[in-house]
Amino acid sequence: MHTRFLVLGNLLGRSRLGRTAVSLAYGYPHGDARVIVDGLAYHSPVMLSAGFDYNARIISILPSLGFGGVEVGSVTARASAGNKSPQLVRLPRSKSILVNKGLKNDGVDAIIPRILAARIPDDFVIGVSVARTNDSAAADENEGIADYCYSLKALSKAGAGRYYTLNISCPNSFTGELFSTPPALDRLLTVVDVLALARPLYVKLPISLPWEDLRLLVDVIRAHRVAGVIVGNLHKDHALLAEGERSHGRQGGISGAPCRETSTELIKKIRATVAFTIIGCGGVFSPEHAREKLRAGADLIQLITGMIYEGPGLIADIARDYANSPLV
Ligand SMILES: Cc1cc2nc3c(=O)[nH]c(=O)nc-3n(C[C@H](O)[C@H](O)[C@H](O)COP(=O)(O)O)c2cc1C
């Protein structure tokens, strides 16, 4: 289904007629849900989160759905076929998806021209999520840092993407979450600082760590040239799934409803300690869920699973609700 959506989205995004038709059916054409974050103007506070348009195939259709932006990727330095199938399993009773894609993508060099060719209005933001290549050539920490930097430099040189995210929290990769410990993250960010990127840089956090451990990561991030965090990635706790869908022994992180409360609580805790940008992500299925995250301290919202279960009308519903009463 994901593949079919991408093929259709790509087709519709290619023509003005396709974009107009989708906009009439689902769009949110008014400008009053606009938000500005780190100097970037978003048509609405809702973005498509990383992992849906991982190969930058459907960017051009997304403004017609009311999105304020998309996070393309995660992209990696080398192309990767990802993990063995099944890479995605729908868990409808839990309103979740079991994700075991393992960073499947065409590689940063193939994806850059697609980002540059996207037809988008000025108030639609393309961010690019950068991860470490998931293949058997992945070696030690230094090689991992070089891998991240290769993608960041390629994107920056091409002028592709208006912000970048470091995905340090992909739960299903060859070398594991190597950069999710404070010392390793510090070493990665120290090297990335030297790149002096001209675009905002965010770090996407794991949500399955205890708060005491996550707080140490936030402390590291604050000491570097990082504009904020995305809270957060997939949950690892399969016990949160409905009975019968607990995926005994199955690999993968879980999205959607099981992430909602954890991510919102973490946003609150992080907001109490920092003033930088927080992008709230995890289990947004309604305008009220978006408001909960904004009230907790998020500046923007990202989602995937809510759109899959509730349909693409959800985006305009959130934008309309926000426009009617932006003071959350
Ligand atoms: C199919 C799928 C693929 C994903 N791939 C990525 C990815 O490549 N990089 C990333 O940072 N997050 C990835 N994620 C996590 C999402 O970006 C998001 O953090 C998570 O799904 C929680 O949001 P949701 O409940 O709105 O889906 C993926 C999620 C899904 C459902």
Keywords, separated by commas or semicolons:
328 residues; alpha/beta; TIM Barrel; eight-stranded parallel beta barrel; three-stranded antiparallel sheet; binds flavin mononucleotide; Aldolase_TIM; Dihydroorotate dehydrogenase (quinone)
Largest sheet: 8 strands, parallel, barrel
Tally of helical segments: 10
Which cofactors or ions or other ligands sit in this model? Answer: flavin mononucleotide
Write out the CATH superfamily name. Aldolase class I
- The poorly predicted ranges are none
**Can you tell me the number of structural domains?**
1
Helix content: 25-40%
Shape: globular
Cα-atom Rg, whole angstroms? 18 Å
Q: Give the end-to-end Cα distance, rounded to a whole number of Å.
A: 35 Å
Q: Would you tell me the overall average pLDDT?
A: 90
Order of helices and strands: HHEEEEEEHEHEHEHEEHEHEHH
- The CATH topology assignment is TIM Barrel
What is the architecture at the second tier of CATH?
Alpha-Beta Barrel
Given helix and strand content, the structural type is alpha/beta
- Can you count the beta strands? 13
Strand order of the largest sheet: 3-4-7-8-9-10-12-13
Strand content: 15-25%
CATH class: Alpha Beta
GO molecular function: dihydroorotate dehydrogenase (quinone) activity
Subcellular location: Membrane
GO biological process, one term: 'de novo' pyrimidine nucleobase biosynthetic process
Organism: Candidatus Vogelbacteria bacterium RIFOXYD1_FULL_51_18
Q: What does it look like?
A:
It is found in: Membrane. It holds the Pfam family DHO_dh. One of its GO terms (molecular function) is dihydroorotate dehydrogenase (quinone) activity. This protein is α/β, with parallel strands linked by helices and about 325 residues long. The protein has a single domain (about 1-325), classed as TIM Barrel (Alpha-Beta Barrel). It has helices spanning about 1-15, 15-25, 110-115, 140-160, 180-195, 210-220, 255-270, 285-295, 305-310, 315-325; strands at about 35, 40, 45-50, 70-75, 90, 95-100, 125-130, 165, 200-205, 230, 255, 275-280, 300-305. The strands form 3 sheets. Strands 3-4-7-8-9-10-12-13 form an 8-stranded parallel beta barrel, surrounded by 6 helices. It has a 3-stranded antiparallel β-sheet with strand order 5-6-11. Helix 8 (about 285-295) links the parallel strand 12 (about 275-280) and strand 13 (about 300-305). The radius of gyration is 18 Å and the shape is globular. The two termini are about 35 Å apart. The relative contact order is 0.15. The model has no long low-confidence stretch (mean pLDDT about 90). The site of flavin mononucleotide (FMN) has 27 residues, from strand 4, strand 6 and helix 9.
